[in-house]
Amino acid sequence: MGKTALIVIDMINTYDHADAELLLPSAAEVVPTVAALMKRARGSGAPVVYVNDNFGEWRSHHGELLDKALAGPHASLVAPLKPDDKSLFVLKARHSIFFETPLQYLLSQQGIDRLVLCGQVVEQCILYSALDAHIRHLEVTVPRDAVAHIHADLADAALRMMERNMGAHVCASDDLWT
Amino acid sequence: MGKTALIVIDMINTYDHADAELLLPSAAEVVPTVAALMKRARGSGAPVVYVNDNFGEWRSHHGELLDKALAGPHASLVAPLKPDDKSLFVLKARHSIFFETPLQYLLSQQGIDRLVLCGQVVEQCILYSALDAHIRHLEVTVPRDAVAHIHADLADAALRMMERNMGAHVCASDDLWT
Amino acid sequence: MGKTALIVIDMINTYDHADAELLLPSAAEVVPTVAALMKRARGSGAPVVYVNDNFGEWRSHHGELLDKALAGPHASLVAPLKPDDKSLFVLKARHSIFFETPLQYLLSQQGIDRLVLCGQVVEQCILYSALDAHIRHLEVTVPRDAVAHIHADLADAALRMMERNMGAHVCASDDLWT
Amino acid sequence: MGKTALIVIDMINTYDHADAELLLPSAAEVVPTVAALMKRARGSGAPVVYVNDNFGEWRSHHGELLDKALAGPHASLVAPLKPDDKSLFVLKARHSIFFETPLQYLLSQQGIDRLVLCGQVVEQCILYSALDAHIRHLEVTVPRDAVAHIHADLADAALRMMERNMGAHVCASDDLWT
Fold it and tell me: E strand or H helix at B113, and its extent?
């Protein structure tokens, strides 16, 4: 039995993309929950891995993405989620945390075989990442109050798909690292 | 602009897996539609690619899978969909048509960049395959009457996800190759 | 610690490809060694996995490839290496046994983490496959008398590269399963 | 026909790894050649992509790798090769520039289908990357005076393998972008 990591998806964000207006209220709601989850994971010694879209088009690095997000109009959604010295980083091309990224290699090198997925958005990147984790025989947990959505009905369907068809454990974030 | 292929997913099937009872009525409904679609695709010279789970555990080949399905109690769901001499075959490990398969290579070698996905089941393998096609910048069409489901509500959500979030064109099979 | 498998590369062959004339003498020399190795592996209960180029262009299956090779002018190089009922099969696109194939999935499902690579040709497919196994942290053994070559000098360099840079164990086939 | 990119492999380096002593003289020899090549590529508007081992263990980013290398005892081998504002970056896990990296995605998004590989070391990462490029049907050029080696004899064999078996064009760096 391996280790469990907290995977924080697409939360280093300037929120200037399509559908951002629809996402913002939900993001604002989950940020404190994600921050608390992160704190408890760190307290338990669980690795925290930030996986983020590469907004910088292969020129920027995660430090620059963070600086840009913290300088933008939605800094208050990013500041509570700042990485610490032990945080790990993976830049993704698009959608899934596994597509054309070194994440699978990083996980296997660190002996991690269980993932807690949080961040945004549940009916897209979280759903796709849960599938790609399941297909690789990794165990997936999704705390339903720590994932933001754009469309509530699709988010609900996504959670049921993950639970029923991808073997994911859907729970409350309070159940984790407490 | 490349070619369009018809991708027939998991229809060479003995229907003895979990949830088969729930799937059978929907499968029975789509088989004639898939058969007609296949006939029109072949008539237009479009490549037909069968992508199927490897029930044989890496010992069998697609000829044996077909023989076994045709000898089983649900042969009537398989016989109308038999491959012809020009059919192409890919065995998949699980779920997505792209996961650990040569499909991406086959498509690029044949100059195919548009996929029509039919078969089963829409809220699982079809959804996962549509995502993996979209992430690879392939164009996806899903004829809604040529895909079978296990759970109608998740199937409906899956079709909306494909249309809204994966750029898929959801249509009636009568719109294709006519 | 997992299991060891014997991987037989590109030996189901009609030998009508480029460079076949240069390959044939070396192939003829290794066939009896590969056959003996296969027999000992089977006797020890080790899985034997045939990985072969897909000469059939995604229309044929491994049974047809075998029939064609056995009906050709070089049947005597194929007959001693026929699969048995327990043999496993993977068709590859080109070069490496891992490129766009389900091999990594098959190995992990069967708990195999050590590979003995035999077949042809050592300075191409065997070298590339040893690299792709090493990069995936699989342990590799190459019996130098059970791998055929086209160019002797490149074959020698390939064996040194595998030993020095890819952590492979290069040995005599008599050291294995005896 | 797509664009050509210059790929600079593992040159942002602290040279404190195994075999570094053997590598240093060859690296010192190629640095001015790589720097000149880079200058001509930039002058022609060709994209320059740095692909580098992730020495930072998924905590650091390319800016930190560069700072560390420039602060070390071998800064003189790194300073002439500094990225400019248009440089692109990919961190790799190990060995090949394609293994678990977004490089293939980056290349296809930018319309690049021809690679000039330079850097180190020719009988390892350059060889593996040339293979992985060839297997993906990308065109490869290797300027022999812009690649460093650890073992001269294996480097020579690697260049012959790339030329003969991987369809690579091996040339002098003066032949490129002049």
Answer: strand B112-120
What pLDDT is stored for residue B53 in this prediction? 87
Under 8 Å between Cβ of D63 and D117: no
pTM of this structure: 0.93
Helix/strand/coil for A50? strand
Q: Which residues of B touch C62 (CB under 8 A)?
A: 61
List the single residue in A with minimal CA-CA distance to D59: A88
Task: Report yes or no: A70 and A80 within 8 Å, Cβ to Cβ.
Answer: no
Residue A56 tokens, joined:
């910088």
Distance CA C71, CA C67 (A): 6
Does D135 contact C165 at a Cβ distance shorter than 8 Å? Answer: no
How many contacts (CB atoms, under 8 Å) link C and D? 48
- Is there a contact between A81 and A41 (Cβ–Cβ < 8 Å)? no
Domain count, chain C: 1
> For residues C83 and A85, what is the distance between their CA atoms, to the nearest angstrom?
54
List of chain D residues whose C-beta atoms are within 8 Å of the C-beta of residue C128? 131, 135
CB within 8 Å of D176: residues ≥ 6 apart: D37, D40, D41, D116, D141, D143
What does the alpha-carbon distance between residue D63 and residue D61 come to, in Å, rounded to a whole number? 5
Confidence of residue C75 (pLDDT cuts 50, 70, 90): very high
C-alpha–C-alpha distance, residues B28 and B12, integer Å? 13
D77-93 burial string, b = 16+ CB within 10 Å, else e?
Answer: bbeebebeeebbbbbbb
The DSSP call for residue C143 is E
Q: Which two tokens stand for residue D64?
A: 């930190």
> Cα-Cα-Cα-Cα dihedral of C95, C117, D162, D30, to 10°?
130
Quote the CA–CA distance of A126 and A149 in Å, as a whole number. Answer: 10
Asked if the model's pLDDT at residue C149 lies above 70, the reply is yes
Q: Do residues C176 and C141 make contact, with C-beta atoms less than 8 angstroms apart? A: yes
- Of the candidates C99, C135, C154, the beta carbon closest to that of D135 is on C99
- Does the pLDDT at position C1 exceed 80? no
Question: Is there a contact between A135 and B165 if contact means CB atoms under 8 Å apart?
Answer: no
Task: Give D93's contacts in chain A (Cβ within 8 Å).
Answer: 102, 105-106
Asked if B124 and B154 touch (Cβ cutoff 8 Å), the reply is: no
Q: For residue D56, is pLDDT > 70?
A: no
Counting beta carbons within 10 angstroms of the beta carbon of residue C162, is it exposed (0 to 12), middle (13 to 18) or buried (19 or more)?
A: buried
Distances in Å between the alpha carbon of A163 and those of A166, B154, C60? 6, 12, 38
Question: Which ranges in chain B belong to alpha helices (H)?
Answer: 20-43, 62-70, 103-109, 127-135, 152-165
Q: What is the Cα–Cα distance from B61 to B51, expressed in whole angstroms? A: 12
Contacts of B54 in chain C (CB under 8 A): 102
CA distance D128 to A42: 38
Residue A23 sits in a domain whose CATH number is: 3.40.50.850
What SS3 state is found at D92?
Answer: strand
Helix (H) or strand (E) holding D49: strand D48-53
Residue D30 belongs to what domain range?
Answer: 3-175
* pLDDT tens sequence across A44-70: 999 999 999 886 678 777 888 899 999
Residues B144, C74: Cα–Cα separation, whole Å? 50
CB-based contact D154:D126 (threshold 8 Å): no
The encoded tokens of residue C102 equal: 């389900």
D84-134, pLDDT tens digit by residue? 999 999 989 888 999 999 999 999 989 999 999 999 999 999 999 999 999
What is the 8-class DSSP label of residue C74?
T
Q: Which two tokens stand for residue B51?
A: 């992508």
Neighbours of C65 (CB within 10 A): 23
